[in-house]
Design goal:
It is a single chain. This protein has 1 helix and 2 strands. The protein is elongated and about 45 Å long. 13% of the residues lie in helices and 13% in strands. The chain has 76 residues and is of the alpha+beta class. The two termini are 20 Å apart. The chain has one domain.
């Protein structure tokens, strides 16, 4: 949650990125959003995908879990 607000024009994560089985995938365009990354040492910007696999049986249960953990979903 510390890194996501550092994304330019961040308005929250998409509530539509669930896979139908309770897992959530988030795409990150540049690794420099993480405070541990030294911007001056980055030679090439790289993106990454993060998938959060939960034990939830439905997307609704997974969303409730991620909200409780502080995932900042934007309003649909």
């Amino acid at each position: 949650n510390v890194a996501l607000p550092r994304v330019r024009d961040f308005r929250g994560t998409s509530p539509k990125a669930f896979d139908g089985h309770g897992d959530y995938t988030l795409g990150i365009r540049e690794q420099i959003i993480f405070p541990e990354v030294d911007y001056d040492k980055v030679e090439k910007f790289k993106g990454l995908n993060v998938t959060i696999a939960t034990s939830a049986r439905t997307d609704e249960e997974a969303m409730a879990l991620l909200k409780a953990l502080g995932m900042p979903f934007r309003k649909a």
